[in-house]
Every structure is written in structure tokens, then in C-alpha cells.
Specification:
alpha/beta, nine-stranded mixed beta sheet, 11 strands, 19% strand, globular
Length: 238
């Protein structure tokens, strides 16, 4: 089937990797790897940014008395663990994968070099960006958009657990919440919808980067999005 995007940045939360628990669930990561392989096999170039919430969340550690800067760095290292797990499962499926990190750790990953990342994707390799922005106080939402812009991706795909798009309210708490199929960035701001953190959202809006927010279930949804199926919520400039 034809694809709607040539190159995409897939944003996955850390909680996805843990299956709702602390640590990495190998069965879950294996399933994600199979979905990404299907996208690569369809001819789409793929970059990935993951969260690290299945290990550490800097803001939550700060609330418990830890210095925010140190807590954020711990979160970045948790992200790298998720990246290495996903790389391992992808390569077991025969998908060439490179991990690039914003914090130098030469024994396990390449440094983050945008032009090299683009070249990897042009050669059909998956690139996983780890260690966040390499600086405290930046969310992985912001990292995902920044990396997508710098590596010339066509769209940011935001895979969610427990929700299948953008709603007028939290559908898990408000049964009257309605799902949006398409929103402009201005509409999302006017309605006060919390899709991403404000910095990430502003970057998308200013650079007219389209974003698709969708549920990770059922299996195969990532491929459906890149093939242009109308699932989830498309957020765009117009």
C-alpha cells in the first residue's frame, strides 16, 4: 500500500515499555519491535524517541526531595536503557538499528549527530534517540519534536496507551468526552487541550509539523497511521 509519510518520528512513552510496571517488559518491547519492522518493511524511514517513566521521572523524584537536575539526568539514563532494549529486539528481527544519545556513552551508542541520523535512515536503518536533550528541564515531548525537525521528518507520531486520540476531556474520567479526528494547533490552544507540553506544542505549531496522536492498540496501528488510515487525531497547521 502507498504510505502517507516518507520519514516519521515515533514518540513512545516509557510506560509503554514497562507494560505499566517498573522496568522493561520483554514481551511488550518485542511486540513494539514487530510493529516498527512492519513500518520499515513498508518503505518508511523511522526515528524513535522514548520516555523513561518506567524507570525514573525527574519531576516526581524532585517532589520527593531530590535535586531536579540530578533527577532529570537519572531519567535520561533510564531512557537509554529503553533504547537499548528496543534496539536489541529490532535487530533480532533483522532491522538494522542505531542508538544515538545526547549524553556521550561511546561503548553502547553513537553521539547524537543529525546528519548521520539522516544518513542512517536513508539507508533503511531505524534511529533511536536516547538520553533526552542531554540537559535537565526538557521533556521527551520537546525532544521528540526537536529531533523530528532536525532530521527532516514529515510528521511526529505520538503512540498512546489507554487512549486512542485527542479528546475534549479525559475519556477515562469523563464519559461525555468527545474525540477529535482533526484539529489545528490554534484550535487546540483555544480549547485548552493538553496534547504535549507547551514547548513541544509551540515548536510544532511554529514549524508547521503535523502530529498524529493515536492509540497503540490494537496491534498494527503504527502501520495504519503511516499508510494514511484515519485513526487517532491529526493535529496540523490548517
Amino acid at each position: 500500500m502507498p504510505v502517507a509519510f516518507k520519514r516519521v518520528l515515533l514518540k513512545l512513552s516509557g510506560e509503554v515499555f514497562g507494560g505499566g510496571e517498573v522496568g522493561v517488559d520483554p514481551d511488550v518491547v518485542s511486540a513494539i519491535a514487530h510493529e516498527i519492522k512492519a513500518v520499515v518493511d513498508a518503505g518508511v524511514q523511522v526515528a524513535i524517541v522514548t520516555g523513561g517513566g518506567n524507570f525514573f521521572r525527574g519531576a516526581e523524584l524532585q517532589q520527593r526531595g531530590m535535586d531536579r537536575v540530578r533527577a532529570d539526568y537519572m531519567g535520561m539514563l533510564g531512557i537509554v536503557m529503553n533504547c537499548l532494549a528496543l534496539q536489541d529486539f529490532l535487530e533480532k528481527l533483522g532491522v538494522d538499528t542505531r542508538v544515538q544519545t545526547a549524553i556521550t556513552m561511546g561503548q553502547v551508542a553513537e553521539p547524537y549527530i543529525p546528519r548521520r541520523a539522516i544518513r542512517h535512515m536513508e539507508k533503511g536503518r531505524v534511529v533511536i534517540f536516547g538520553a533526552g536533550m542531554g540537559m535537565p528541564y526538557f521533556s521527551t515531548d520537546t525532544v521528540a519534536v526537536q529531533r523530528a525537525l532536525e532530521s527532516h521528518c514529515d510528521a511526529v507520531l505520538v503512540g498512546k496507551n489507554g487512549v486512542d486520540g485527542v479528546y475534549s476531556a479525559d475519556p477515562n474520567q469523563d464519559p461525555t468526552a468527545t474525540k477529535y479526528d482533526h484539529l489545528t494547533y490554534d484550535e487546540a490552544i483555544t480549547k485548552g487541550l493538553k496534547i504535549m507540553d507547551q514547548t513541544a506544542f509551540t515548536l510544532c505549531r511554529e514549524n508547521k509539523m503535523p502530529m498524529v496522536v493515536f492509540g497503540m492498540e490494537p496491534e498494527g496501528n503504527i502501520l495504519r497511521v503511516v499508510q494514511g488510515e484515519k485513526i487517532g487525531t491529526l493535529v496540523s497547521a490548517g
